[in-house]
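Standup notes
- DV: blocked on the single-chain target, sequence here:
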Amino acid sequence: MSFIQEARIALLDVVLSLLAWMFFTPFALVVPKKPRSVVVMGRQNGQFLDNAKYFFKYGAESDDYAADVIFLTADHRLCNEINNLGGRAKIYPSVYGVWALLRARVVVYDSVDWVQGGRYQLSFLARKVQLWHGAPLKQIELPLHQKRLNRLTLFKRRMLAIYKLVAARYARNDLLISTSCYFTKNAFSEAFNSKDILESGYPRNDILCEKNITTSGTDGLLELNTDTQIIARIEEAREDGKKIVMYMPTFRMDRHNPFDSGILDIARLANFSKVNGIFLVFKFHPLMEKYCNLEGIDNIVQYDSGADVYPALPLCDCLITDYSSIYFDYLYVNRPIIFFPYDYVQYTADDRQLLFDYDEMTPGKKCYDQDTLEQSMCDVLIGIDGYKESRRIVFKKVFDRQESGASAEIWGYIKANYFV
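- DV (later): unblocked, structure below
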C-alpha cells in the first residue's frame, strides 16, 4: 500500500473518530452504567476466537458472578449462533450494540482495533480490560510504534501522532493481562499504557490444561468457530495410528511464504508424510492462506485460517512454527516443537525485531530447509526429544500459572474491582 493510500485511509479514520468524539462521547458521559454489565469484543469486528472467546465462554456459563455478559460482533450468523447456544450477543453497528456499549461497566478485548467505529467513544467511562492475543516473541505496540516513527520525517511523525491520538489507538487500559512477571518486565509493561497488570495467564490456555480434549458435539460454545471437519479428520487419523503434526507459520509483511519461494515442496512433503505415518495440518494467517494450493494433495489438510485452533492443539503430537507466539501456548501440552525460521535474517531485518534471544527462547530443533525439517519430524515422532528441559525452563519464564484457572482469576479481579 502506498503512502497516499495509507494517508487517505487515515484521514477517513480521523474524520470518523472526530465525529464519534462529538456525537457519541456526550451520551457516554450521561447514560448510567449497568452495575455488572460486561461487553466482550474479539478482534477484527468481533471474531469468536482467542482470549475473547474463552473469556466470554467462561463468563456466560458461570453462575458465580451474575454478570450481564454480551459478546459484540459484526457477524450476524455468529450473533445468532451464540444466542442459540445460550449466550448473549449483539450486532455492532446496531442500536442494540450501541446501547450495550453505552451501558457497559466493563469492556474486554484482545486486540487494539476494537477502538474503531466509535466503540471507544461509546464506552468512554467504562473500565477497559486488555487481554491481548499472545505472549510476544516479537516487538509489539508502543516500542514498535516508536520504531516506525523514527523512520519518518518530522512532518509525518506529527501527523501520525495526531492520527493515533484522535483514533484512540494507544488509549490507556485499566487492566492488562500478562502471562508472567518475566513477561511483564521484559515485554508488556513497555508495550501498553495500562493502569494495572494482572499476571493471570490467558483464558484460551485453560483448554490446553484439560485431558482428552475433543469438540465432537460436547460443548456448543467451545465448538463454535472451530474447523470441525478438520478436527474430525484429525481424530480419525489418530484412531488409525497416525501422528499429527501442525504447521503454523508467521505472517510476513511482503506475503512471502515457503511454497512460492521453493523452500518447501508440497508434493514431496505429502509423500514423506504418507510414508512415515504422519497426518500434516497447515494453519495459516488469513492473508497467507491463498498462497498454498492443496488440490490433489493427500495426507495434508488446511485448517480454516479464521477459525479457533486451540481445541485442535492438544490433539497434535508436534508443532512446527517459526516466530509465532503460538508455540508458547503449546508448551502447556509439553510435546515437541520444531522451528523452521528459514528466513531468519530477512524476517528480523524487515518485519519485526525480536524481544528475546531466539535460540534461548525457542526450545526445539531449528531447521532451515526441507531435508532437516523432515528428518526432525522423524526424530521427534519416534521419541527422540532432547528439548524437554529447555521447554520446562521457557515454560516457567513465560507462564506463572501452569495450570488452568486464568479465566476464573480475571473474572474474580473484575468482580472485586469493577462491579458495584
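- Follow-up: The chain has 19 helices and 13 strands.
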